[in-house]
């Protein structure tokens, strides 16, 4: 019963969040400067052609009616038609999703495989007197450099010196997995720098917090080896904030993919959205933002479930805490 | 201590990278452009074997909001892509000469009549033979459409079939740019039988007589074209497949050229040639185009000093277009009058009345108009080199005591501000026109009654409109008529032509032997792609 109530609560709050996002994005795209007609049809378009375009996409109706029609269609799985390509937005999002998903998975994998060991290592080797300047500097750099700066630098360097990795081209995974990887490694690396840094820093803090717990002191007293202690006592207890972070970072990376896909010319959801914003392609922007919000919500639910599995005291069934 | 060493190391690494970058971008030794043949930048090596796949990258996709219908295509990027599948009766040769294409020749029994002799054995890519009915139907459809190109065809009175293999076009009055207007994609010959019986919708299907057939198109991602095996011109196209990637980021296109991901790419930034200097096997060429930048001065904004012709003339005088060409376009552009520089018969911008007047005269005009401390906002889009051009304009006008504030917007916001309302809300704005292949064609945009898109900021000048029409109706002594148009537009100064807009193309000489004209009127870098030979499989 408690599980049912939990799911019902999450479903309601998720629906409310999505509804709020839908109102905000619908209003935001219409408040953007620059008319869709001049952008989509070009300067030579006549008033009659502009009116035809508006009528074709229902943009001549009152905004509330437009919103109602759009929301109803989205609820039925129809994300509308792109004014630029005249193709269904949902189909194009589906076609592009694998690129963004692959980019995000690679970046998350790099964050976990590099960030967690780095964090553990710096925590275990930290001196009681403090220190850790190296870790702080590296993570500080990683967090501070924006993706478009790092991405542009990487594109420049790897266009001058190929070094076995390609930029400026993209090959589908289904066509040639090895060649695909060669085009995806650099964008994924750029995308992951921020999350590796944050993951390493959070892991370090979490591990250092656990290392001073009495049960760790007891394990040391029993003469267990340091790496046994880390594996069996520290990692699981330090995992909660790291898992939460990785989950939220995954959703964040989808946002970062907007820039990285554009800079590296990858045909993912991010570059689709960037182009759509530039061309005031309303249906695409609305669907893309709604999709991103959906991903955030789903990731949050997954994090809650995963945290509950790792630490039952924090789980869904743990009951209300005062 | 260790963090300090690390910080020094990181700083040194970043500095080294920056120096490497500087080292590659400050080698201003652009090699003299090779001249392959008169009128050409490069001519494909016919000794090379045919076949293979050609990977190209361009910065923007077709403007597909109006679909694939070539008659509604109004921007050069769309013409470029559609020209691979569609063809016109005539085409533009090197140095803007009109040449036969689907018409193997034409007669002009008088200055108002054209009789086109259609090429035999031409088929659409569905296998059906092109007929005179297709030609008549296509041109009539264009004239009846809302296409901006319908106006460029001129005063067409009648289009009739003259036997099976001939089409006769009769004009109401002589119209000099007629053949040049027929040579562009909107005048393409369409499969009218299929369009009329509704088995083909040209908005969604490309079905032409051209060298390539579309196999796949993903908007803003890529195009794949396969050779049209039934193409009438035996021996063409040379390459079996064209893969065209849409890569909006210039750096990504440069990277693809460097690492061989692309055999040819279009470039937009004048510095890109320097970026590619020293890149192994990459050749960079600049194709002169008739496209040109121009300054719009809003004479319809209530209370604006720019409504006074003296103020606008003063601005025209104060502009140093040679400096704009040299500084903002790296010396690749040319100052121009409203007839695009480089076109046969175009006016000499140095001979314009404003060119002979001094900065003091500009200040005098401002004083007479009571606009000594003139200040206005120049609204530009953020695509290079527009910001650089705007900065030179700002500095030029400062010398005449005019303060210019530059407002840089994304293209959509810019379009909305410039074309979204009438009267328009901007003070001044900058844009560029395609210059086409006849000097009289683009002058039509100086008449807001013909070019409705300018009506939000521009008053009609009846005298100028009369001169424009006269110059296009006058096959004899046209140079004098065009000079009158240029001088009148110079005095009107509601739209001030600045400099031509060159097109930079880079290709891998180890992967491709292309053919490229030295000059282009319709922004079509891919005009001769059917001739290009692939040097090695990619």
From TrEMBL, chain A:
It is found in: Cell membrane. The keyword RNA-binding does not apply. One of its GO terms (molecular function) is dipeptide transmembrane transporter activity. Keywords: Cell membrane, Membrane, Transmembrane, Transmembrane helix, Transport. PROSITE patterns: ABC_TM1 (PS50928). It holds the Pfam family BPD_transp_1_N. GO terms for cellular component: plasma membrane. This is Peptide/nickel transport system permease protein. It comes from the Bacteria. CDD domains: TM_PBP2. It is a multi-pass membrane protein. The chain crosses the membrane at residues 103-124, 136-158, 178-198, 242-264, 284-307. InterPro entries: BPD_transp_1_N (IPR045621), MetI-like (IPR000515), MetI-like_sf (IPR035906). Residues 97-308 form the ABC transmembrane type-1 domain. Gene3D superfamilies: MetI-like. It comes from Nonomuraea rubra. Belongs to the binding-protein-dependent transport system permease family. Its main location: membrane.
UniProtKB/TrEMBL annotation, chain B:
Gene3D superfamilies: Dipeptide-binding Protein, Domain 3 (3.10.105.10), Periplasmic binding protein-like II (3.40.190.10). Pfam families: SBP_bac_5. Residues 1-20 form the signal peptide. The keyword Signal applies. InterPro entries: Peptide/Ni-bd, SBP_5, SBP_5_dom. Keywords: Signal, Transport. It comes from the Bacteria. The keyword Ribonucleoprotein does not apply. One of its GO terms (molecular function) is peptide transmembrane transporter activity. GO terms for biological process: peptide transport. Residues 98-450 form the Solute-binding protein family domain. GO terms for cellular component: ATP-binding cassette (ABC) transporter complex; periplasmic space. Belongs to the bacterial solute-binding protein 5 family. This is Peptide/nickel transport system substrate-binding protein. It comes from Nonomuraea rubra. The lineage of its organism: Bacteria, Bacillati, Actinomycetota, Actinomycetes, Streptosporangiales.
């Amino acid at each position: 019963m408690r599980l049912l109530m939990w799911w019902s609560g999450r479903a309601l709050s998720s629906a409310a969040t999505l509804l709020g996002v839908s109102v905000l994005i619908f209003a935001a795209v219409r408040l953007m400067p620059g008319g869709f007609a001049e952008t989509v049809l070009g300067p030579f378009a006549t008033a009659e052609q502009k009116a035809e375009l508006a009528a074709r996409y229902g943009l001549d109706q009152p905004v509330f009616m437009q919103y109602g029609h759009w929301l109803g269609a989205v609820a039925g799985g129809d994300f509308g038609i792109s004014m630029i390509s005249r193709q269904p937005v949902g189909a194009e999002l589906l076609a592009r999703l694998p690129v963004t998903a692959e980019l995000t998975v690679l970046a998350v994998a790099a964050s976990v495989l590099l960030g967690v060991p780095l964090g553990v290592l710096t925590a275990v080797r930290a001196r009681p007197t403090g220190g850790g300047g190296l870790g702080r500097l590296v993570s500080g750099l990683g967090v501070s450099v924006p993706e478009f700066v790092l991405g542009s630098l990487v594109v420049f360097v790897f266009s001058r010196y190929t070094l076995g990795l390609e930029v400026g081209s993209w090959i589908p995974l289904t066509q040639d997995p090895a060649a695909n990887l060669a085009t995806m490694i650099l964008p994924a690396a750029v995308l992951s720098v921020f999350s590796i840094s944050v993951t390493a820093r959070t892991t370090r803090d979490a591990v250092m917090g656990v290392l001073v717990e009495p049960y760790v002191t007891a394990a040391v007293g029993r003469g267990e080896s340091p790496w046994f202690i880390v594996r069996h006592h520290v990692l699981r207890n330090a995992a909660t904030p790291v898992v939460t972070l990785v989950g939220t970072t995954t959703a964040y990376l989808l946002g970062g993919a907007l820039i990285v896909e554009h800079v590296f010319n990858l045909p993912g959801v991010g570059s689709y959205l960037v182009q759509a914003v530039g061309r005031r392609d309303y249906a695409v922007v609305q669907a893309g933002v709604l999709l991103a919000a959906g991903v955030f919500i789903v990731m949050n639910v997954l994090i809650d479930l995963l945290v509950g599995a790792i630490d039952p005291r924090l789980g869904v069934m743990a009951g209300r805490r005062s | 201590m260790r963090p300090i060493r690390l910080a020094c190391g990181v700083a040194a690494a970043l500095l080294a990278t920056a120096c490497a970058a500087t080292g590659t971008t400050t080698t201003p030794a652009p090699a003299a452009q090779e001249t392959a043949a008169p009128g050409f930048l490069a001519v494909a090596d016919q000794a090379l074997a045919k076949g293979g796949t050609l990977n190209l990258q361009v910065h923007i996709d077709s403007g597909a909001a109006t679909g694939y219908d070539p008659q509604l295509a109004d921007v050069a990027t769309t013409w470029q892509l559609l020209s691979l599948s569609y063809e016109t009766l005539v085409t533009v040769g090197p140095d803007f000469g009109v040449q036969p294409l689907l018409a193997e020749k034409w007669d002009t029994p008088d200055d108002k009549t054209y009789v086109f002799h259609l090429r035999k054995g031409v088929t659409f890519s569905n296998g059906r033979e092109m007929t005179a009915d297709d030609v008549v139907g296509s041109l009539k459809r264009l004239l009846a459409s809302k296409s901006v190109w319908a106006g460029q065809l001129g005063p067409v009175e009648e289009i009739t079939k003259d036997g099976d293999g001939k089409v006769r076009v009769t004009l109401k009055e002589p119209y000099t740019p007629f053949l040049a207007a027929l040579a562009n994609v909107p005048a393409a010959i369409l499969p009218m039988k299929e369009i009329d019986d509704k088995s083909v919708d040209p908005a969604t299907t490309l079905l032409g007589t051209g060298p390539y057939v579309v196999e796949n198109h993903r908007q803003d991602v890529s195009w794949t074209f396969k050779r049209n095996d039934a193409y009438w011109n035996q021996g063409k196209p040379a390459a079996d497949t064209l893969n065209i990637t849409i890569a909006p980021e210039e750096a990504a296109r440069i990277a693809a050229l460097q690492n061989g991901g692309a055999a040819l790419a279009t470039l937009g930034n004048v510095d890109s040639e320097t970026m590619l200097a020293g890149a192994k096997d990459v050749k960079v060429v600049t194709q002169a185009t008739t496209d040109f930048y121009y300054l719009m001065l809003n004479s319809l904004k209530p209370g604006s000093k720019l409504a006074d012709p003296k103020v606008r003339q003063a601005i025209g005088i104060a502009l140093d277009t040679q400096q704009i060409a040299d500084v903002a376009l790296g010396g690749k552009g040319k100052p121009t009058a409203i007839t695009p520089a480089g076109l046969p018969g175009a006016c000499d911008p140095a001979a314009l009345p404003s060119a002979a007047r001094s900065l003091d005269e500009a200040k005098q005009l401002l004083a007479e108009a009571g606009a000594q401390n003139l200040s206005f906002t120049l609204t530009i889009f953020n695509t290079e080199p527009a910001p650089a051009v705007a900065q030179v304009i700002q500095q030029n006008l400062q010398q005449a005591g005019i303060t210019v504030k530059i407002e840089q917007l994304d293209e959509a916001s810019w379009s909305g501000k410039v074309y979204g309302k009438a009267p328009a809300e901007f003070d001044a704005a900058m844009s560029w026109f395609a210059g086409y292949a006849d000097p009289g064609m683009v002058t039509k945009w100086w008449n807001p009654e013909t070019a409705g898109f300018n009506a939000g900021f521009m008053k009609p000048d009846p005298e100028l409109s009369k001169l424009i029409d006269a110059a296009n109706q006058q096959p004899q002594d046209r140079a004098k008529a065009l000079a009158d148009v240029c001088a009148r537009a110079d005095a009107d100064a509601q739209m001030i032509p600045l400099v031509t807009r060159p097109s930079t193309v880079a290709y891998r000489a180890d992967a491709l032997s292309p053919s490229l004209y030295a000059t282009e009127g319709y922004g079509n870098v891919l005009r001769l792609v059917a001739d290009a030979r692939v040097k090695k499989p990619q």
